[in-house]
Amino acid sequence: MNRKRFLDFARNDKIGYTQVGDSNLTITFVRRSYSASGGAEAYLKRLAHGLINRRHEVELITTEDWLTHEWPFGQITRLRARSATEFADQVEQERTRRPSTLWFSLERIWRCDIFRAGDGVHRAWLERRKKFELPLQRFARRLSSKHQQLLQLEDALFAKRGAARTIVASDMVKNEILDLYRYPADNIDTVRNGVPLQRFQFDSELREKSRANLKLQRDHIALLFAGSGWERKGLLFAMQAMAMSRDRRMRLLVAGRGKTQRYYKSKHVLFLGEVVDLLPIYAAADIFILPTIYDPFSNACLEALACGLPVITTRSNGFSEIIEHQVHGSIVDAPNDIAALSAAVKFWSDEPRRSSARSTIIERASQFDISRNVEQTLTVLRQAISAVPE
After folding, report:
1. Greatest extent of the chain over all pairs of C-alpha atoms, in Å
2. Angle (deg, nearest 10), helices 351-365 and 299-306
3. Whose CA is closest to 26, among 388, 390, 381, 377?
4. For 22-39, b where at least 16 C-beta lie within 10 A, e where not — what string?
5. Which residues does 80 contact at the CB level (< 8 Å), separation at least 6?
6. Distance in angstroms (rounded) separating the CA atoms of residues 120 and 12
7. Which of 56, 139, 204, 340 could form a disulfide with 25 if both were Cys (CB 3.0 to 4.6 A apart)?
8. Is 165 within 8 Å of 113 (Cβ atoms)?
9. Which residues have a Cβ under 8 Å from the Cβ of 232 and sit 6 or more positions away?
10. Alpha-carbon distance 176 to 165, whole Å?
11. Mind listing the pLDDT tens digit for each residue in 342-370?
12. pTM of the prediction?
């Protein structure tokens, strides 16, 4: 491992560097894609950091998308795969070369010791998506080789028991796996997402600086939408909810990758592009909104919560399970219920209400530090090892 790069990562994420315990596990992580602003990638790096701190060894199987400096934790092996099944086939070949390691996959592959269903259940997502698509779109999706491959791999993991154990971040995903694949409930572990709380905190000084940089006036109410895959995460619904509020003070900040030409232009909507460090944007915002069609457990929602922002989201987001309606944010039943979203925006537009709720919001987020996630994940890893026959 490049120690300098590892220490740089620890400093940048403000989560410290403490060595604890003896090295006793070797874990091979699998993640095919890479996005600098991706929630899964951020989570994986934080988990790897926590495991390294406890003197466990980690390595990564990925593709050429993952840059070397973004993995300062151990060995990295890049596969040249053009499709999901080709990647899974190559991972299976790598498994034969590493018989003594524990295989922890964040990607749908044929087999693994631990599968973290961080991307949710693809079959469930496709079913939810049908409600928001035209017949021609549904027909085209059924013919898509990409979706067919993902469903085949998902079936291998769940229906054919290719995953010895599965980690989920929400009861929503757990129930989808049980209902759609009859996977054994005893083999599913719920481990909520975690973030480095020392990094994500309310900072009034940073807030003033960030709002000035974004040209937000003192009376502007800044709604923040963050994430890529705008159709799935409900950007159009967020824009419609803001428009329905008819509040001239409202501004919508959009952080993430997407095709802006698909969305109507407004001087009240600011497209920021892909933002690697969202902390200044959280600081500038007043309300976080994610009216998602499907999200297993949004990391961005948890980061926003830690920064003291009320979070408006849907019951289709596993994150909604950890907050209370009109206490830590608002939960709407359907992402396209624009009236309900607009009412939630209006509710949290009241500055005294936001200020009085901030300490309660931050206290709720404090229960989801990344260290807790690492410890719970380690427990699952040890269970997986003990289940392997000698």
Report:
1. 67
2. 110
3. 381
4. eeebebbbbbbebbebbb
5. 63, 64
6. 29
7. 56
8. yes
9. 125, 129, 292, 293, 294, 295
10. 15
11. 999 999 999 999 999 999 999 999 999 99
12. 0.89
Let me know: does 154 contact 108? Beta carbons within 8 Å: yes
What is the amino acid identity at position 307?
Answer: C
Cα 384 to Cα 247: distance, rounded to the nearest angstrom: 53
Confidence category of residue 58, pLDDT binned at 50, 70, 90:
very high
In Å, how far are 9, 129, 321 from 238, measured between CA atoms? 33, 17, 21
pLDDT digits 0-9 by tens, 148-185: 999 999 999 999 999 999 999 999 999 999 999 999 99
For residue 364, give both structure tokens.
Answer: 């709720």
Q: If we measure between CA atoms, which residue out of 216, 217, 214, 236 comes closest to residue 225?
A: 236
Q: Cβ(177)–Cβ(183) under 8 Å?
A: yes
What tokens were used for 143? 């013919």
State CA 171 to chain mean position distance: 15
